[in-house]
Amino acid sequence: MMMLAPPSAEQADDTRKAALAILSKLQPKKAWDACYKLELSRQCPIERRLVVLERGVNFFVLSLEALGCQTFHSCEGHPRGFYVAFRAPSVILAREIAGAGYFSVELAKPADTYSIHLCDASALGGWDHSLRGAAAAWMTKLLP
After folding, report:
1. Which of 46, 72, 130, 140 could in theory staple to 124 by disulfide, Cβ–Cβ 3.0 to 4.6 A?
2. Domains contained in the chain, CATH given
3. pTM: predicted TM-score of the whole model, two decimal places
């Protein structure tokens, strides 16, 4: 797996501000659906080009960026389930993300790298229902 070089402080701040600008306009219960309609692209660390993200991850990629994280892999329909891999500025933030519910948060290598995995979606009413609920929880518990 190839990793992205960390962005400069200025690039990270610009990304965070752009994500916050989008998220600040959303209502918690409609946030996931609103972001699903967006076409977001990010630099692929493997292909080294911009790729369009799968729409189901949009809200969570924007939210992680708004929280100061750098995302680098994501998949809405991975055989092992929905996930987003990211670098976090602190383990405290990773714990807060886990505390918001819906996702398990796993520590990877290097030590500041984590991934979120949707918990059993079938028990929570299916993928879309679970992701809508998780987005609403993040809007009220995590985002400024």
Report:
1. 130
2. 10-141 (3.90.1150)
3. 0.88
